[in-house]
Amino acid sequence: MNAAQPLAGITIIELGTSVAAPYAGLILGEMGAEVIKIENPDGGDAARTWAIFSGKTKGSSLVFDTFNRNKKSVTVDLTQAGERDRLRRLILERADVVLQNLRPGVVDDMGIGADALLAEKPSLVYCNVGAFGDQGPMSRLPGYDPLMQAFTGLCHITGPSDGGPCRVGVPINDMGTGMWAAMGIVTKLLARKDTGKGGIVDVSLYETAMSWMTMPMASVLANGKSPGRYGMRGPAGLAPNRDFHASDGDILITVGTNQQFRNLCKALGHSEWAGEERFATSATRSRNDKDLSALLNQVFATRSRAEWMQVLNDAGVPNAPVHDPVEAMNHPQVKASGIVQGATDGASPQVLLPLKFDHSRPAYRHRAPNLGEHNDLLK
Hints:
This protein starts with 10 loop residues before the first strand and ends in a 28-residue tail after the last strand. It is built from 15 helices and 11 strands. By secondary structure, the chain is of the alpha/beta class.
């Protein structure tokens, strides 16, 4: 078996739209599973129409292409009983996993929910990807990633300290939920080897958002107070832990130990700062962050970002340039890591999964499918 495709031989039926469930399907497909994406014949996954059209997959967008590579597309009109029967047969005959994020209650009303299918095929793993989860007063409501950022307080702690709440710049809850779904599915498949039984996996955008808020919520649980916004400066307790302005751009420095701070001061030619009482520990540096940052910015403004990075790296001080996405993509670390690759079928490069098996990264085998490209899989 190919070490980089440990799920080869597993078949996933994905009734997924937008990002969360499709990202889970992407992860599983990249690891070797056959992922059969079920789409509405009238336009397919809504993400096919989002953002910039790719020109690579017929009637598609960059968003769809990004989250649906290494999959097959089968169109099924779920409003038609005959079509639902064909899908049901496909699941019962071929599927190891069903992955779905349709509106709450839809799959149960159609007879393709977890309880109905598991009654006929106990070995099936069935994953529900929801908005607010399967319990509580909001369990029947739909939801999107930015709504969960707002609802759980994630927006409140994001952004500059002197500004208003901000959304995180990527669909962090969608993609995080997809990761949890994939983890739950793999765990159930592993358990099935011993028991022969599958079962139900439930994940949701809301619960994922709450999990990202673990540290801020610890403050709420401890003292009932809401953390503030820090912008590029990290939470209180660690300093320096923020961006500084070099002559040609910004550089972010995170000093995690007192020794690293001493190394920083020495590298900047100001070893005396490390001996000052107000900068002696992380706690005192954090309380005096404004004064410390003013001193550091005066020094960093005198040289370029690249020059300072070399100085800091030589001194063992953790740092990183504040890149824009173009700079990040063009950095030599991208090529060295192999995190960006084109498909073996010649499709344009994409960012691949951030893991390897025995030093091999799961492959980008083929582009996202055209709508209904694999309808011959239905009987």
